[in-house]
Specification:
The chain is about 35% helix and about 15% strand. It has a five-stranded parallel beta sheet with strand order 7-6-5-8-9, with helices on one face. Strands 2-1-3-4 form a four-stranded parallel beta sheet. It has eight helices and nine strands. Helix 5 links the parallel strand 5 and strand 6. The protein has about 290 residues and is an alpha/beta fold. The N and C termini lie close together (about 10 Å). The chain folds into two domains: about 140 residues, Rossmann fold (3-Layer(aba) Sandwich); about 140 residues, 3-Layer(aba) Sandwich (Rossmann fold). The model has no long low-confidence stretch (mean pLDDT about 90).
C-alpha cells in the first residue's frame, strides 16, 4: 500500500488487514519500524484528535517527523499544495499526512509525486483514517459487521465521516441508515424521525453540526436541533440493551448529544480516540513497509 486516500480505494480484505494490524498493536504494543522513515503532518484545517493521534503513532513507531506549520509556510505567500508537496519530496520526505479543505485535493498529485500520501480529511469528501478507527471500534465491540444496524445522525451532507463510513460499512455487511434535517441530506436518503430507528440500531453514530461548511446558517437554535435531531437522554433509554454511542468529535455538547451521555456506559467516544492511535500506527506501518 503506497497511499491511503479514500475508503473507496480499499478492498474489504485491505480494510480487515489494517484492523487486524491495529488489533495486534493494541494487544502486544506498537513495534518500532526497523528502518529510517521521514514523515510530515500538513494540516491546513484545525485538528486535535487526528493530528495528535498521528503524532503519537509516529512517535511510538519511531518514525522521524519533520514539523510543518501551514500558518508559517509559503502557503501564505500563495504556494500551491502541489509545489509544497514537491518541495517536501525533494527535501527527502517519504510520506505526508495531509488535511485540506478542498474535496479531492490529492487527485492532481497522484501522477506527479513519489511521496506517499495519507488523507487526514479532504473538505466534505473522505476521512479514511477516522472511518477505519470507527470500524475497529465497532469490530472490537461486536466481533463482526454482518447484519449490524448502524444509524448515522447529524450533518450528513457536509460529513466526510458519513461518506467514508457508509461505503465501508455497507461493503462489510452492515445496514446503514441516515437521520438528519431534510436540508442536510445531500445525496443521501435520510429519515428525519428518531422513533422509527432508535430501538433497532446497534450503533448510534452522531455527527458534528459543521457550521463552517454551511453557505447559510440553519434557522434552528441549538436547543431546537437537540430536541429534534440530537440524542437526548430520553432517546438513549429507547436504545437496544447492547447498543453503543459513537461520535467522531469534536462534540457540540447538548446539540448532537446530551452532555450526560458523552461518558455514559454506552459511549465509545473516548475509546474511538484511543483506538485512533493503534489504527493510524497500523496504516503508517503498512505504508512504510510497502516502500522498503
Amino acid at each position: 500500500m503506497k497511499h491511503l486516500l479514500s475508503m473507496k480505494h480499499l478492498s474489504t480484505d485491505e480494510i480487515m488487514m489494517i484492523l487486524e494490524r491495529a488489533e495486534q498493536f493494541k494487544k502486544y504494543g506498537i513495534r518500532q519500524t526497523p528502518s529510517p522513515y521521514i514523515i510530515s503532518n500538513l494540516f491546513f484545517e484545525p485538528s486535535t484528535r487526528t493530528k495528535t493521534s498521528f503524532e503519537m503513532a509516529e512517535l511510538k513507531l519511531g518514525l522521524d517527523v519533520l514539523p510543518f506549520e501551514p500558518g508559517f509556510s509559503s502557503a501564505l505567500k500563495g504556494e500551491s499544495l502541489y509545489d509544497t508537496v514537491k518541495t517536501l519530496e525533494a527535501i527527502g520526505l517519504d510520506a505526508l499526512v495531509i488535511r485540506h479543505p478542498e474535496d479531492g485535493y490529492y487527485e492532481p498529485l497522484l501522477d506527479n509525486v513519489n511521496v506517499s500520501l495519507i488523507n487526514a480529511g479532504d473538505g466534505s469528501g473522505q476521512h479514511p483514517t477516522q472511518s477505519l478507527l470507527d470500524l475497529y471500534t465497532i469490530k472490537e465491540e461486536f466481533g463482526s459487521f454482518e447484519g449490524l444496524k448502524v444509524l448515522i445522525a447529524g450533518d450528513v451532507a457536509h460529513s466526510r465521516v458519513a461518506r467514508s463510513n457508509a461505503d465501508a460499512l455497507k461493503r462489510l455487511g452492515a445496514e446503514v441508515t441516515f437521520l438528519c434535517p431534510p436540508e442536510w441530506a445531500g445525496e443521501f436518503d435520510c429519515v428525519n424521525c428518531w422513533d422509527e430507528v432508535i430501538g433497532t440500531s446497534d450503533v448510534v453514530m452522531l455527527l458534528r453540526v459543521q457550521h463552517e461548511r454551511h453557505d447559510e446558517q440553519t434557522s434552528m437554535t441549538k436547543e431546537s436541533y437537540h430536541a429534534q435531531y440530537g440524542l437526548t437522554v430520553e432517546r438513549e433509554t429507547m436504545m437496544k440493551e447492547k447498543a453503543i454511542i459513537m461520535h467522531p468529535a469534536p462534540v457540540n455538547r447538548d446539540v448532537e448529544i446530551a452532555d450526560s451521555l458523552i461518558e455514559c456506559g454506552r459511549s465509545r467516544i473516548f475509546k474511538q480516540v484511543e483506538n485512533g492511535v493503534y489504527v493510524r500506527a497500523a496504516i503508517l506501518d503498512m505504508i512504510s513497509k510497502g516502500r522498503q
